[in-house]
């Protein structure tokens, strides 16, 4: 695991009116913060003599479990959705692990995992219900708070993207002792945490399409919800143009290429704190973005004639969703 | 100025057979390491009561001088080539400084600067002949050596891209006390340093087109050459496919978007040390890349079918040069 840097950007800070401290987990091994939880969980399973590991994921947890399994020379089977991004499939396969595709919903993947568990007698590394995973994910926030303090800063809040909920739950554990508020950011298209808060328990939501492939789980895990329900200070929902705009802004103004889930956190930070001049940490959760998706966003920015645009202004135009449409 | 992070990548290290330590000056204020020299030089001029500053540059030194001038509320005029990348023009103008276009050669820009100096009585911040600039650029290498040591490593060499020569000259000053070899990397299309070494003095070379807009100066500065002539351990020339391949590899395997000059350094590191398993620092000099250029490179990678390619292999295909062709 790497201690990833915390990055600043004057231009983004000026653009949003928020002092941003971005934890660059897009530069983490495996391309996302998910390695943190997977390593902790798989290390424990390996120590107990595991025969192999099995996990379902939208992609990044699968990459992370595959990497952690390789470290212990354990076989691994990863169940992913058919609409997974190709770069994530490649990263899993590069480790030597096996990929299985199962529908597009969480329920379909979970059913496939249960079948495979019976067949292989492998241990399941659940991305949401395994306490080791949740605690591991929290170390990204713990490091972020520590790194900001080392530079003489102090965070008012951290903003965490919400998929299945392990990141935000881990962040609550890590931020609580420091008195730093935890804010969740989820796509308007898949408001699973907002719905769970309303219902008082995890519920499956009717999900519409989101570009943020990592945030497509349509239901929050039970353990993450139990930990985060009273731990989060706020949850903001981000619409699709907002996600794309943040992804472009990160590229154009900070030179960072992140996946849409990470951009969702930045957009959420802007919505939560815009103009308040506070210090906000943002978990740039991952960088496993499809080159073609990024290319289509960049081709569309109108940045070829930047001199004609007001400084810092990025025109919004419709984005072709490519193979996801 | 920021203390930029030093980044590692298992995938690039495996790909090239070199333990890479990449100094991410693409994340520096202004998008390149050039701020280091410009700040030192402009701070000194401001302390002496300068009326304003003036500089010629392929782009990054101009951005840096403009930022440094704004810090002291000094007016600034920057002379740049007509084939400068649009993103660099935008970054200069965002500071409030004035941009003047003058041909495409170093000689044309220098002539324009002399005219403007007589007209405005501004101080010239020369990107090559000003000792403050050269010393400032060297701090990137000094930090890199220090940061690697802090992680328990030790560099065998640092690889520095060569444009006008201030970066490599500064690196020689910084690396000498540590016994770290300095290797220059320049485009085969503009082999100004190689030619100077052969001639025993700076000479203008017949330059052909290079994608590396920051490395287009067709002549090494006198001061940089004097400092680097005996200081560099080797100079490698990188062809255009090699620059593009490194730029793609940085994006696809390390999640980094850099400008072609920075990719030239990585390609040079690979050429210099491939398979030798040594520790090599690479100055990722800047990140001011045209979104359209990056988009065209990414669209062309064949990465849509990564599962069909051997792991880590990026097929080479012809790259449309866009407006530069």
Automatic annotation (TrEMBL), chains A, B:
Gene Ontology biological-process annotations: isoleucine biosynthetic process; L-serine catabolic process; L-threonine catabolic process
Keyword Lyase: yes
Top-level taxon of the source organism: Bacteria
Signal sequence bounds: none
Keyword Nucleotide-binding listed: no
Domain Tryptophan synthase beta chain-like PALP: 2-284
Coiled-coil stretches: none
A single GO molecular function term of this UniProt record: threonine deaminase activity
Cofactor: pyridoxal 5'-phosphate
Keywords noted in UniProt: Lyase, Pyridoxal phosphate
InterPro entries: Ser/Thr_Dehydratase (IPR050147), Ser/Thr_deHydtase_PyrdxlP-BS (IPR000634), TrpB-like_PALP (IPR001926), TrpB-like_PALP_sf (IPR036052)
Descriptive protein name: L-threonine ammonia-lyase
Species the sequence originates in: Micromonospora matsumotoense
